[in-house]
Amino acid sequence: MKLLAPNPGWTARADVIVVGSGVAGLTTALQVRSFGLSVLLVTKARVDEGSTKWAQGGIAAALGPGDTPGQHEKDTLVAGAGLCDEPAVKVLVSEGPEAVRKLITRGAVFDKEASGEISLTREGGHHRNRILHAGGDATGAEVSRALLAAVRNDPEIEVLEHALVLDALKDVDGKVCGVTLHVIGAGTRDGVGRAIGRATVLATGGLGQVFAQTTNPSVSTGDGVALALRAGAEVADVEFIQFHPTVMWLGDASQGQQPLISEAVRGEGGHLVDDEGVRFMVGQHPMAELAPRDVVAKAIMRHMEKTGAHHVWLDVRSIEGFVERFPTIYASCLAHDIDPLIDLIPVAPASHYASGGVRVDMNGRSSIAGLYACGETACTGVHGANRLASNSLLEGLVFSARIASDIATDLREFSEPIEISQQTILLDPKIRKKLQESMSAGAGVLRSRESLLKATKDLAQIGEKASTQPCVEAWETTNLYHLALAIVRSALLREETRGSHWREDFPESLDEWRRHILQHMDVDGNWSSSFEEVIKS
Questions:
Q1: Residues 293, 402, 447, 494: which is the catalytic one?
Q2: Backbone angles phi, psi at 169, to 5 degrees
Q3: Superfamily assignment of 2-240+353-409 in CATH?
Q4: In the structure, what pLDDT confidence band is assigned to residue 350 with cuts at 50, 70 and 90?
Q5: d(CA 498, CA 508)
Q6: Which end of the chain has the smaller Cβ count within 10 Å, N or C?
């Protein structure tokens, strides 16, 4: 299956096609170049507009005194709720410190103590101070800045901006040999074209826009995961959507990207309270507000349902030096007429991070030859049922380096794409709001068979709203539709509660469900599901 689109009118070539310009895509491009290969870096908007720059949290790595990769591994496994692939976690935590050091050599500047040592803080789920920050709450922006500077200084990395990836191209052997894409703007490469390479890496980031409220930017429509699905690649663990517990509440009618209040704020002493000023997290978990995100998000939703409130409150008034420590958050609050030094901040959960994605091995290979994935687009198995805070930027650094090494070690020759007879699809972009509202209501923080079946019914009706007018909005909406189908299908299958997947009708975690759910779509759009056991050490 592929998106309805005009025939390609131009062709670009490079050894490696990298789709996405967040930490995963930029690091992949730089690492590929270290092997002397040319890179075409494709990005949907401007090269600096991905999710990475919005990351207020930091990068987790065992760099502090007394900390070890083993301790980092233990915290990651606990947060992953029994669904982490242990070899992948070992790779993450053991190769993480060196990946961070390499990022520093590429120019990233992290916050330091008065002694000159890198300042390490703590976030939810971590039992050690191991989080590196930059500019207080602007870590993502600093990481993006450093990597972009390195990319721009390399003439063998061609950057193609304002380019929406559409579908995979395959050769006569069924291997992926590039992608089709649509470039917005005047020039020799406007409209639909094709990019051909020896390897294709998807690093398109998250899919938060499948829900009505999200911390993700507007470009986060899961284009890479949807492309992989239509290409016949397996996706895994897509039911595990992490909802950030403390997102600024802007009203019930608010849509799209919402201001994030970093978990680091609670790490520095911020408290959650209800309308009566009661700290309702105390007694619900030994770590109270610093419990793993799924625990906090579910507790907030349950408290809201119990009290009828539309949000809870975050009290940061006791944090000394809040303005200096969290300048971005402070400015965001002021922009919404909230002075956090005086006022409580209204917060509620919103979709934040997808732990699942394109199923890959520890070298980033998908189930289709020639196609790799990394970052939030991929499911490496490190996050399990719930990502540990600040492991995402680290995952992008570690696994992108492994992808580059694998490509260089097993470099394929260029091959030409062939025309494949397959069904096309395009949905009316007007159904996007209905899709997002249905997903938030039926497949949000708290789920049940009833709510998921309602979402399934809504999606069936939405899928009938076809369009014959290809455009960016229609392609994005169709991508969101395919992602929504995959999420709801997996959420219905998993009849238990685990990590960030909560079933009110199945509140317990069951040993029989300690396995990954894989989804697959064939060329005619038919879906199938399978299971994969969690990989132990």
A1: 293
A2: -100, 140
A3: FAD/NAD(P)-binding domain (3.50.50.60)
A4: very high
A5: 8
A6: C
